[in-house]
Amino acid sequence: MTDVGETMGGMSQQQQQTADEVGPEERITPIFKILRETIKLREKSTIIKKRSLAGDNAIYGHETYGVYGTGKYGRTSGMIWGSTPYGEWGDALWGAIQEGFKLGGAAGVLGTAKLGARDIEWSIARVLNPNGEYIETFRADTFEDEDNTTADWDTSGFKINFTDGQAVQSDIVAKNNEAYSTGKITLIGTNLTNLTLYLSANGGGDFEAVTNNVSHTFSNSETSGIKFKMVAGSDINSTFPLTFPTGFGCAVTDIKLGYN
Amino acid sequence: MLINEGKNRVRDLIVADLTNGELGTDGTGASASDTGLIAPVAATIVALSITTADKQLIADYNLSSTTGNGNTYKEYELQLSAASTSLNRSTFYDVPKDSTEEMQISTIVDIQ
């Protein structure tokens, strides 16, 4: 028969043992994780453009090109103020300087539109990127060459969407009077193997095939700057099997283009 | 977590503080310790026109054909409203300008 005192003593030992095994370190202790986050300010591209007003231009109100009797309205095929062959009142035509003011035209509203050469084309003098790296996140279409782009440069969804055979071509993304020797384009997106990539180091004169995230040595390089081009395969929307969840097509969400 | 609308608020505060652009003629490479342009041309101080997108601002600067002529420009900065404070300084290879030319500069800045 077991003594009551012995039983109680055994229980006390068990409790003591349990307490020892748990130990003070095993008590629940709140841990506060500190997530370090930063807001970074990133200077991206700086684009410097110029345009020349020289020639037979007249800009209404302009200090140099708007002087009555000195500035000339029109171009050689239109009206030139004071010119014998092109200045005949009632004969020669006013306006039409590169689709500037044209009397009677959509851009020629009297009292609203301004006379002169408003649409003389800008040329890119410099495109500067800190640390020799162009970065594109598709917040704006500043660098989209609309004339040579069929894919969807989506500034709402912040990406380029491609379907069968579509292409995107950039304007000049780097230019500083240097003939660049190497370039490396790195893409982030979905189904990127559906794209064929190209870089040009002579302002779009020659596009050379490149591989994503692989440095490329240019064969043709001049000081006219770098452009990129991407072309989707002709049947990327019918590829089988479907890649879940990305589905058909492909998209680019970020571009980094390093050069030197 | 820092959320997008907070970052866009930071962007807007910067936009509100940006005032002018200015060109200069010294092409010494930019450094974080720079305190503005090295050889500024005061005539080229022009108010900026700023547009925004998600976590991004684009500051546009236009220099007319009647201003800042006869110089070869090599540096450019964005100025903040606080006295003598610049946001950045960019240097580049020579860009000459005369009275037949206009210049336009766009600077893209992201908030990450």
Descriptive labels:
heterodimer, A: mainly beta, Jelly Rolls, 6-stranded antiparallel sheet, 4-stranded antiparallel sheet, 1 helix, B: 112 residues, mainly beta, 7 strands
Commentary on this structure:
- The complex is a heterodimer of chains A (260) and B (112).
- Chain A has two domains: 45-121, no CATH class; 129-259, Jelly Rolls (Sandwich).
- In chain A, strand 4 and strand 5 (159-162) form a beta hairpin.
- In chain A, strands 3, 4, 5, 7, 10 and 12 form a six-stranded antiparallel sheet that branches. Chain A has a four-stranded antiparallel sheet with strand order 6-11-8-9, with no helix packed on it.
- The model of chain A is unreliable at 74-78 and 92-102 (pLDDT under 50).
- Chain A is mostly beta strands and 260 residues long.
- Chain A has one helix spanning 4-22; strands at residues 41-52, 123-128, 133-136, 152-154, 159-162, 167-169, 182-190, 195-200, 208-210, 216-217, 227-232, 250-259.
- With 112 residues, chain B is mainly beta.
- Chain B has one domain.
- Chain B contains one helix and seven strands.
- Chain B has one helix at residues 4-17; strands spanning 18-24, 46-47, 49-53, 56-63, 71-80, 85-97, 101-111.
- In chain B, the strands form two sheets. Chain B has a four-stranded antiparallel sheet with strand order 2-1-5-6. A three-stranded antiparallel sheet of chain B has the order 3-4-7.
- In chain B, strand 3 (49-53) and strand 4 (56-63) form a beta hairpin.
- The radius of gyration of chain B is 15 Å and the shape is globular.
- The mean pLDDT of chain B is 95.
- Classes of the chains: A mainly beta (260), B mainly beta (112).
- At the A-B interface, strand 1 and strand 2 of A face helix 1, strand 6 and strand 7 of B.
